Write the structure tokens for this entry.
Amino acid sequence: MNMVPAGASALDLPAAMAAAAAEIDAALDEVLPRVEGDEARLFDAMRYSTIGGGKRLRGFLVLEGARQFNVSRQAALRVACAIEMVHAYSLIHDDLPAMDDDDLRRGKPTNHKAFDEATAILAGDALQSHAFTVLAAEATHPDPAVRIELVRMLAHAAGPRGMVGGQMLDIMAEQSCGALDESAIGRLQLLKTGKLIEFSAEAGAVLGKAAPSQRQALGAYGRELGAAFQIADDLLDATATTEEVGKATAKDAGAGKATLVGLLGLERARLQAERLVAQARDHLDGFSERADMLRALADFVIARRN
């Protein structure tokens, strides 16, 4: 059965996201079980950064996209688990001393602080590979062509032309003496953040074998949403407190990070995020009221305070 999570009305986005997060955590508990023996520490570190905490924005996008096409909840949850594992791996590695060197994530010590650097690196590596194990399993979809397409899409979104490539551009921008222009920052953020969000929005259409136009519309929605989300994240870094967001703030400017907030200023960056949200919503014009949660999510990404 495919439906709005229990306890959430059709327009109650916070309740829907909370209910979906609980579902995703329960599914992650199954695909990342506790183990005994020599691998126990590795699994503990993987679970530490993956289960509990976080908004589950990417997983929620998968579930809501799949709901447009009556995809089974189990299939959608498995894909949601895969994207959340890849996201968790990226956060573990981002927080390492060689990268952003953060001590706090989601209100608790980062993985390398709770365990150690070597374990954190291995936990991230294992989460990435395990995500593809989950996607490739028959339980995710009976059609192998669908599973192959999901694997291809996520590998592209997470790889050198996606998230990892964007992280490299981010590091190079910090080390460069010259400031990036708006176009270069937009490309950096599209790769680093936007590609995984685009995958998350489009994955449900792939699971549902939707028409190409519907798949393209959800992918475009995800691209615009991802760009708005990154600007909102940068605005939070500049204006929110550590207590609000559960991680260190006011770090981007000090680290010399290339952001639209730094280039445009707070007000112009907010206006740009609002334009992107409007464009994201426009891509949903061909969908029924069943997509209202996706429309509400677009507004949420720039209104959030954590």
The radius of gyration is 18 Å. The chain has 15 helices and two strands. Residues 13-303 form a domain with the Farnesyl Diphosphate Synthase fold (CATH 1.10.600.10). The first strand starts at residue 104 and ends at 105.
